[in-house]
Each structure stands twice: as C-alpha cells, then as structure tokens.
C-alpha cells in the first residue's frame, strides 16, 4: 500500500521513532500525523538550507526529496482541489508547504542572508523553481510564471508580517492534520445585535408556492473563457490548462481537443461561449434577472496579466449585455478575476501590490446596472448592494476574503472582518425595511478552500437574518449542487444554491440554471438545469450547434418543498435511500459521460451526502448524522 511507503519514509527519513511505532500512524489522530509532517518538513527545510549555503546535495537531501517526489500521485497539483486529494497527496502537500515556506521565510528574515540584498529576488526564484522542479510539482514554464506573478506580493507579506510557515500552511491547507495549530492572531468575532433574538427551536419551514408571476433568474457561473483554445490541439498535457497548442502531436489521436470543448483540463473557446449565450437568449426570453457568480477568466494560472484578464472579462460580459440589453445583471468576483491569481489586497496596501486596478475596472463594467452608491464599496473591496425592485435586495460579496489561496489572509486575518461587518449592517437595514435578500458570493462557505473563521462568522449572520435572507447563490465548485445551513442545534435555516459551471474543465458538460422565484418572499420555489452533451456535440463538430436540453427540474426529481426544512427532509431521504442520493450525484456531475462511466462508489456517496450538509468546514455534526444513516442503508442493501 502507498500509505505503508509514505509512513516508512516518514520515520526512516526523519529518525522520529523506531520502526515499531509505524502502526501508530494508522490511528485517526491528526496530532500524530501533523507531528510526523512537521518532523519531515523540518528535516527537508534543514537539508535545503544546507544545500543553499553550500551548493552540496547531501545523501539525506537527495533521499528525502526523491522519496517525496515519488510518493505522490501525478504532477498536476493545480488541477485537483485540495479537498479532492488522496491522503498520501495531502501529506505530500503539507510537508512541502511547511518546508519550503519555512526556507523562504527563514532565509528572507535573516539579515545576513542574500535574500535581503540586491540579489534577493533572484535567490528567492532559484529556491522556488528548484523545489518546484526537483519535486516535480509542475513544469518549469508554470513554476516560473507563478513565481514571477506572485513573488512581489509574497515578498511584501513576508517583509511586513511575522507569520510563520505552519500558520501559512494551516490557512492554505485546511485538511485536518495540517491544520491543528490555533491562530490567536487570525481569529475574530462579529459584534452582532442579537441579544433579544428569539431562540431557534425549529427548522425554517415557511414555503413559497409557484405562482403565474414567478420571477425567472438565470444563473451563470464559472464561464472560464480561454482565448487561446484551439480545436484539435493537445488535450492531455502536464500544465494545469491544455487544448492550446501542440496540434501536430494530437492530430489523428484521442488526445486532440474537441471543437466545442473538451472534458479534460481545458476551458471554453469563444464560439462555445457565444453559442451558449445565444441559445439562452432564444430559449429563455422571459429572464428577469441574471446572476453571474464569478470566474470568467481561464485556468491558465501561470500566465495571467492585467491586460489579458481585462480583455477576456470585458468580451464575455459585454456579450451578455448585448444579448440581454434590458435584463439587469448582478455579478460577483471569482478568484480567477485577479492578477496575480487569487490575490485580493486590503484597501490600505501600497499601490504596487494593491487590487484597486481590478475594482476600478470591474466597476466601469458593472455600473450599467448598479446604483451610484455601490461605487464606494466596489472600489473599496469589490462588493456592493443594490435594490433590484422594491422589497428585493441583492447583496454581492467578494468572499475571496475567505479563499485560502488568497495570501493576504496571512498578512492580517482580521482584515477579513470588514466586509462581514458591512454585510451585517446591510442585512440589518434590509430587515428594518422589510426587504428580502439574495446573497451572491463565489466560494461556498463550507468549501475546504474557505477559511473556517470567515465561514463561521458568515453562518452566524445567516442564522441571525434567516427571515430576511431568501437565498444564497455560489459558484466555484463546478458542481450542480446545494448546501443547507444549520444552527448549532441542528435546525435548517437557509439554503445555498450552486449553479455548476459553463466551462467543461474538468470532466463536466457545460450548464446553466434557471430559478423560479416567488415574487413576494423571493424564495426559490423550483429550478431547472440545462446542459448539452459534449461527446455528442464534438462528434457533430462545427457543422452543427450543440443540442441544449433541460437535464432536470428539481421539483419533478426530488421535492417541491425547497424551504430549508423541506430540503433537510430530502437529505434524510437521500441518506435512507442510496439510489435517490446517486440520482442527485448524477445531476451534480451534470450527466457527464466520463463521470457516469466511473460511477460513485461508497466513499463518493459519503462525501456527497456530507457536502450537502456542511457550510462551515469544521462544523460537521449534521454531516456525520446523515453519513451514519447512509452507511446503515448501504450496508443493508448488500445483505
């Protein structure tokens, strides 16, 4: 087993204990695993420091790096989300993160080290590129592109904060054994006026009903347009994004990129994006509002720039405006909109590392449908509120404040309190005005890449304003899914709806959603997902447009009660009936051919039910209850 190899490596490389202690690591103790990771990281860091000082690769250095490199599965760490990695890959990422962050932080803060001199940037790049290639984390092109784009901000953060390697990696990697340290300097609580609020003693069950006057809301998310996509180019490559080049290597083979897109690590060509928008315009002339929940930019993460991001974003959004000239469009920011990727600075950061350029650019485009008062908060941090019509308020968050790849979290985590306090004040005003609110945010609050402190406080706001918030809408995961928000007592109080993704990256049919929204309470009373089958579309090729079809209507497949209480009841039904849960999973995966061929095994089913019930990463009580029921149901089905 691979775990045996990695455990043997841990103890032989670090001399932590005798080999007789190996079996202890099979106990589910995160502290033990974290200590083992720390021990190995310290060894790697120490050996790397010796290598930098002497230029000599010791046998221990070569052994540790070779074993680490050979231990994990495949090169492309940037294709898989952290929460999708296998255990051995989690261990690899934790060790390498702690070690290399430690090397850069230690050497940079040492006043006698070259990193503080005129050669500092060159030395830092040498360290990063050497580690990236030595451990085969990515290709040289990708390693250099990521370093060149991100280093100036990382250098500023290292110079101006005392954050250590373990803290950095605990933010960046939130799976449990790499996140066992407390962070007293990275914690906060919102001061809420909730002392006189009644106790919550039941799930929110007030239920909207379909009416002839229901609003129709189009949800587009994760469009990820790739301007360099070339049909017939190489769809299998070592970089995080393919389907751009090496056409001569792919011609006549199964590795050639399809005309309308590709199931592999590829984003959408312009003709697919444009055809999707055109189809929607023709099929849904009755759309009242459009939600666009982020990530217009492609996954070419090592080659972003302000100029490129602006061109791609403007082309996509202006096409939506052209096709829907009279339909209000309410967007929010995805992590891919930024350059460098994922990084969103606090407002007070120096101009050289500030995100002002992005907010100014976005406001110029967004202002078509935003009130004048939104300008202040968009320019401050990329968030806003707008009254869509009397009684109906939109709140759009830039919740990259919670995104653990946003390194500004390391700088000062309490900065992330500012937007949440604005959200509190905005919800309080909406409550007093008897308004109903839809919240847009890119990253689901329960996602493994959303910082637990932020999501904990966000969920406090959701509970406090459960009667005001009628719906929450996310993207980011590329999955057609939902999440139920619970109180500490286990009562369901809100629902987050996720619109899936227009892009095909990785292994998805393109999709969009239409919500039917009751016009008085603004509750979602039904929704439908539309897709086209990419295999069939590429078989027909350029001669025929993709055949979009309605994949499913939620009320017809699951329940017509979309209240939090109704959907919590559905989760129980899924836990007791694995076939119902498997059907949900098929729709979550957008009926994609490769996904359906692979199927959803026991582990997949448990993760599926759990993800539905988690909106704070480390609060999993309802998840565990549902998993226990599902395990019992699956076991009984095999008897």
UniProtKB/TrEMBL annotation:
Binding-site residues for Zn(2+) 1, renumbered to this chain: 222, 224, 295, 478
EC primary class: hydrolase
E.C. numbers: 3.1.4.12
Catalyzed reactions: a sphingomyelin + H2O = phosphocholine + an N-acylsphing-4-enine + H(+)
One Gene Ontology CC term in the entry: extracellular space
Signal peptide residues on this chain, from the entry's feature table: 1-16
Disulphide bond pairs: 94-178, 97-169, 132-143, 237-242, 243-266, 402-450, 600-604, 610-623
Protein function: Converts sphingomyelin to ceramide.
Family statement drawn from the similarity comment of this UniProt entry: Belongs to the acid sphingomyelinase family.
Protein name in UniProt: Sphingomyelin phosphodiesterase
Protein source organism: Glossina fuscipes
């Amino acid at each position: 087993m691979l775990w045996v190899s990695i455990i043997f490596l841990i103890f032989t490389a670090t001399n932590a204990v005798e080999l007789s202690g190996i079996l202890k690591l099979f106990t589910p103790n995160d502290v033990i695993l974290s200590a083992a990771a720390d021990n190995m990281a310290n060894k790697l860091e120490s050996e790397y420091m010796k290598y930098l000082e002497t230029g000599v690769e010791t046998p221990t250095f070569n052994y540790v790096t070779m074993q680490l490199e050979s231990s994990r599965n495949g090169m492309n760490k940037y294709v898989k989300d952290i929460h999708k990695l296998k255990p051995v890959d989690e261990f690899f990422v934790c060790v390498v993160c702690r070690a290399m962050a430690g090397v850069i932080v230690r050497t940079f803060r040492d006043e006698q080290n070259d990193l503080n001199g005129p050669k500092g940037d060159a030395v830092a790049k040498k360290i990063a590129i050497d580690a990236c290639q030595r451990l085969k984390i990515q290709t040289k092109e990708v390693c250099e592109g990521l370093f060149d784009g991100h280093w100036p901000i990382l250098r500023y953060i290292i110079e101006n904060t005392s954050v250590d390697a373990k803290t950095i990696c605990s933010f960046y990697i939130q799976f449990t054994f790499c996140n066992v340290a407390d962070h007293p300097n990275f914690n906060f609580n919102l001061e809420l006026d909730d002392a006189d609020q009644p106790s919550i003693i039941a799930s929110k069950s007030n239920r909207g009903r379909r009416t002839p006057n229901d609003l129709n809301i189009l949800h587009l998310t994760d469009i990820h347009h790739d301007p360099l996509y070339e049909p017939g180019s190489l769809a299998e490559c070592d970089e995080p994004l393919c389907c751009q080049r090496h056409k001569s290597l792919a011609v006549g083979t199964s590795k050639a990129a399809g005309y309308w897109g590709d199931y592999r690590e590829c984003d959408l060509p312009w003709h697919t994006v444009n055809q999707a928008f055109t189809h929607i315009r023709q099929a849904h002339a009755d759309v009242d509002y459009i939600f666009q929940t982020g990530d217009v930019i492609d996954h070419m993460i090592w080659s972003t720039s302000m100029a490129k991001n602006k061109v791609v974003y403007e082309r996509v959004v202006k096409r939506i405006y052209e096709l829907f000239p009279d339909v209000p469009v309410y967007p929010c920011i995805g992590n891919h909109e930024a350059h460098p990727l994922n990084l969103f600075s606090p407002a007070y950061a120096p101009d050289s590392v500030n995100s002002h350029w992005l907010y100014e650019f976005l406001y110029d485009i967004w202002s078509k449908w935003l009130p004048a008062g939104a300008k202040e908060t968009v320019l401050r941090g990329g968030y806003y509120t707008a009254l869509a019509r009397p009684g109906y308020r939109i709140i759009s968050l830039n919740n990259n404040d919670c995104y653990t790849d946003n390194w500004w979290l390391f700088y000062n985590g309490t900065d992330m309190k500012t937007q949440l306090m604005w959200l509190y004040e905005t919800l309080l005003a909406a409550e007093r005005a008897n308004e109903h609110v839809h919240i847009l945010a890119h990253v689901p609050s329960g996602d493994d890449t959303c910082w637990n402190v932020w999501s904990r406080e966000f969920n406090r706001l959701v509970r406090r304003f459960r009667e005001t918030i009628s719906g929450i809408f996310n993207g980011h995961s590329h999955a057609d899914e939902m999440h139920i928000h619970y109180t500490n007592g286990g009562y369901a109080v809100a629902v987050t709806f996720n619109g899936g993704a227009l892009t095909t990256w990785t292994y998805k049919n393109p999709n969009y959603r239409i919500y039917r929204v009751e016009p008085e309470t603004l509750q979602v009373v039904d929704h439908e997902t539309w897709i086209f089958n990419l295999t069939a579309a590429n078989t027909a090729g350029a001669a025929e447009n993709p055949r979009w079809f309605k994949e499913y209507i939620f009320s017809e497949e699951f329940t017509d009660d979309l209240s939090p209480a109704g959907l919590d009841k559905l989760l129980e039904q899924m836990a007791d009936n694995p076939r119902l849960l498997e059907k949900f999973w098929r729709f979550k995966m957008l009926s994609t051919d490769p996904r359906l061929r692979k199927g959803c095994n026991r582990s997949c089913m448990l993760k599926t039910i759990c993800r539905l019930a988690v909106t704070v990463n480390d609060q999993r009580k309802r998840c565990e209850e549902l998993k226990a029921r599902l395990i019992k149901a699956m076991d009984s089905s095999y008897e």
